[in-house]
Design brief:
The complex is a heterodimer. By secondary structure, chain A is an alpha/beta fold. Chain A is built from ten helices and twelve strands. In chain A, helix 5 packs across helix 6. Classes of the chains: A alpha/beta, B alpha/beta.
Chain lengths: ~325, ~325
């Protein structure tokens, strides 16, 4: 589908949380790829492994989580076996991360400028003047007046804090920016303006983005491709407009119809009955079968594999015919 | 439509918080001059961004805060006149609250039955022990927790977020309420189980005739359950009216902005008409004038001199804006 070599390629990645009662597999055989400049959205409910997947890709997992198997190739290098020294060279310069809660991710007793220069100096030796110039440049880039370099995080609004987190992630113009629900703490108006800004920056700078969210409607207008995760697995992955236009996996369909609309007729919605499974004891067969409205007998015993429909990969037995 | 006697009516409801030390003269105007009423068998959505004062309104109605000014009238009687323990308890039973965070609002050391039984004992002393048990089971059934006996014996950690929130509603139901103040009851829940809780509110209204004040920042879910909507901005009501009419004909520029920002997966991709500065409103000693004027594309001189009052623009639909017609 994409002519250029992928920037990031994840193959059969498994991440375990090692507990006293045994390993809990939070990410189960996830494969995905991101092309240069592409915007990949990952949606799923809490506990579906989406954040764990991100941290695994960024190689930021700490015990008790560990990568159990699979590979992550970033710019052709294997990230899983890469040592800390090599990681330090590419981390932040080639890929960066925007965390969910800016209030907790920013240091409350340091000014934004000091935190930016910390990030810069950790990776590059630059004279103070160049650090300041770069800091001002990235602040302008995200639409914050550089006077706020002297501000402390509590003096900024929630939207500005998230923007300065994004500014920090862009100081080295990385090829990949990994974003973990950067808008979830904002109200809708600030959320939309931040999303537009991210998209605009992406167009200007050309970085690829992985954007994780629980709000499927949020990424609908912004991502090129979309992966829907459930219980540690990717259930459906494909071009965003195809996945939205015709969600094939019953879970994607259920998730999409869990959002009431502000336009059109007021229809009664059902959501998805039941609750997401406990990953320590995942259901047999298809992991979605206890909540699936279209469940068949073999869904309970046989785990479905991926089937392809119009460029969309669907992990569901409903599409077993014809390939 | 406005023939029934309202359950609750507020006039000029205002709450300010002092910022800084006890000698400080700076006040945060959380809620200013809010007039609202809730009729029997009605779901009213109170919508606004974080910091708009919507939760403060709920807490004022629940009597956890005292109003700085203004009055709350419950069935024709002012709340400030209801001072005896019996009256306060009676009010708390008829107008209970359901909280946002189902993980923080249930005590982890007690079984589910504790909260429900306690409410029954405290607010309905006429019931015998066996009546209470039957009533608790009936309530759990009505919030969709089956089998009820099993759920009553569980601890909160054995329940999912959606189930916990249903327990929150069960505790409120145990006092036989007229009006439930639901403060963002679904915002902490998983997307796929939110609709279930919204449907529960609609069912309780239909089957038991309970009114709701549904506080939310999600205008789409407000439309899904509510009859009327009240949009708050910076402590004041910006617009109120029948939900379909407000969404189809938003009059206040803030409502218009809010509606344009709601992501709708079924809508075609639309690029924004305006780039909003998203500057947070000034609520510390705001002074006269419309509080939205800094962000408003239509602001005129009058907006910075005179605070706009709510005025009717369509049937049962009012907006506080000098410019709107």
């Amino acid at each position: 589908m994409i002519a250029t070599a992928p920037l990031l390629e994840v193959n059969d990645l498994c991440v375990d949380y090692v507990t006293e009662k045994g390993a809990v597999r939070a990410v189960d055989r996830v494969s995905l790829s991101v092309a240069p400049g592409e915007f990949l959205g990952i949606v799923g409910e809490s506990g579906c492994g989406k954040s764990t997947l991100l941290y695994a890709i960024a190689r930021l997992l700490g015990p008790p989580a560990e990568i159990a198997s699979g590979s992550i190739r970033f710019r052709g290098d294997d990230m899983v076996t890469m040592g800390e020294d090599d990681l330090r060279h590419i981390r932040w310069q080639n890929y960066s991360l925007v965390m969910q809660s800016a209030m907790n991710a920013l240091n409350p007793v340091m000014t934004i400028g000091a935190q930016l220069s910390d990030a810069i100096l950790a990776h590059q030796r630059l004279p103070q003047r160049a650090v300041l110039a770069r800091s001002e440049e990235v602040m302008r880039l995200v639409g914050i007046d550089p006077v706020h370099l002297k501000s402390f995080p509590h003096q900024l609004s929630g939207g500005m804090r998230q923007r300065s987190m994004i500014a920090m992630a862009l100081v080295f113009t990385p090829e990949l920016v990994i974003m973990d629900e950067p808008t979830s703490a904002l109200d809708v108006v600030a959320q939309r303006s931040l999303m537009l800004q991210i998209k605009e920056l992406q167009r200007k700078i050309g970085f690829a983005a992985i954007f994780v969210t629980h709000d499927m409607s949020l990424v609908s207008h912004f991502s090129d491709r979309l992966a829907v995760m459930y219980a540690g697995q990717v259930m459906e992955i494909g071009p965003t407009h195809t996945v939205f236009g015709e969600p094939r996996h019953p879970y994607s369909l259920g998730l999409l119809s869990s959002f009431p609309s502000i336009k059109g007729e007021r229809l009664p919605l059902q959501g998805i009955p039941g609750t997401p499974p406990d990953l320590a004891h995942p259901p047999s067969g298809c992991r979605f079968h206890p909540r699936c409205p279209k469940v068949m007998s073999h869904c309970r015993t046989i785990e479905p594999r991926f089937h392809e429909r119009e460029g969309v990969q669907v992990r569901c037995h409903l599409y077993a015919d014809g390939d | 439509m406005v023939t029934a006697e309202p359950i609750i009516e507020t006039t000029g409801l205002t709450r300010h918080f002092r910022i800084g030390g006890p000698l400080s003269r700076r006040f945060l105007h959380a809620v200013d001059d809010v007039d609202l009423m809730i009729l029997p068998n009605e779901i009213v959505a109170l919508v606004g961004e974080s910091g708009s004062g919507k939760s403060t309104v709920a807490r004022l109605l629940a009597r956890t805060y005292k109003p700085t000014r203004g009055d709350i009238v419950y069935h024709g009687r002012s709340l400030s006149a209801m001072t005896s323990r019996k009256q306060r308890l009676g009010y708390a039973a008829r107008v209970p609250m359901v909280f946002q965070d189902p993980y923080g609002s249930l005590s982890p050391v007690y079984r589910v039955s504790h909260g429900v039984m306690r409410a029954l004992k405290l607010h309905r002393p006429e019931l015998t022990a066996s009546d209470r048990e039957q009533e608790a089971e009936r309530i759990l059934k009505s919030v969709g927790l089956q089998p009820p006996r099993e759920f009553l014996n569980k601890y909160p950690h054995q329940l999912s977020g959606g189930q916990r929130q249903r327990i929150g509603f069960a505790q409120a139901l145990a006092c036989r309420p007229e009006l439930i103040l639901a403060d963002e009851p679904v915002s902490m829940l998983d997307v796929s189980v939110r609709i279930g809780v919204l449907n529960l509110m609609a069912d309780l209204r239909r089957n038991e005739g309970i009114s709701f004040l549904y506080i939310t920042h999600d205008i789409a879910s407000a439309r899904y359950v509510a009859d009327r909507i009240i949009v708050m901005y910076a402590g004041r009501i910006a617009e109120s009216g029948p939900v379909e009419d407000v969404l189809a004909n938003p009059k206040h520029p803030y409502t218009q902005l809010l509606l344009s920002a709601v992501p709708d997966p079924r809508a075609p991709i639309s690029l924004p008409a305006t780039s909003d500065v998203a500057e947070p409103p000034r609520v510390i000693d705001p002074g006269e004038g419309c509080r939205f004027r800094y962000r408003c594309p239509y602001a005129i001189e009058r907006c910075s001199q005179e605070t706009p009052l709510l005025r009717p623009l369509r049937p049962a639909h009012e907006a506080a804006c000098h410019v709107a017609t």
